[in-house]
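Throughout this chapter, every protein is written as a compact record of paired, labelled lines. An example of such a record is reproduced below:
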Amino acid sequence: MKKINIMPGILVLCTLIMSGCEKEKDKTDFVTFEDFNLSQTGYWNGSDGSGGLTIGNLFFRNSFNPDYESWSGFSVSNHTDTTSPGYTNQYSAIAGAGAGGSEKYAVFTTYVSDTIVFTVPERVTGISLCNSTYAYLSMLNGDDFAKKFGGETGDDPDWFMLSIQGINESGEVVKTAEIYLADFRSGDNSNDYISDVWNEIDLSDFGYVKKLILSFSSSDTGLYGMNTPAYVCIDNIKGEKDE
């Protein structure tokens, strides 16, 4: 009886399947901040002068000013304070944790250049956003610099918005997403809200982008610019690399 050896064919098939799985795994990207080492302060704000941090395929820009001990762009935090108002609590998410209850997340505040840069262009299929405690309590109650959203009657059509621009490899803006972190524009006050949870935003219709530029705007704007604290928390960035 003639013996038929099928093992080589099976091995080739398995190799092809494994290669396909590895290729798909390499193409996807899921960025969290859980493995980022924090000091006893519970935050990193760029005081090391590094100019940012790289996680996976993403670079998050940071600018630290040692003269004023201030920063812009991205920081990383594990703070959980949801009750203390003001600038001294700038590293907390109003949800009290990262997305999905994680320990660490990023905090973003206004920056003037590209804010997230992809080494390899990505199609971003998800990015989780949450108000900071600082911004949330300012909008909820007002403070020395910003108004209470809705005003005394609750009828003022206030809003706080994060804009995300997708930039392709040619430096062109391909699309802009506008996400309302607070919205009091409805004629029915029962529809007014200041978001206090993590929300995942799908940016896949941007296509493959090289950069994301984040910026803020608010109805509460004065002679020197926006009064609402320009902060948002970010976590769990999902994408597919253009490979």
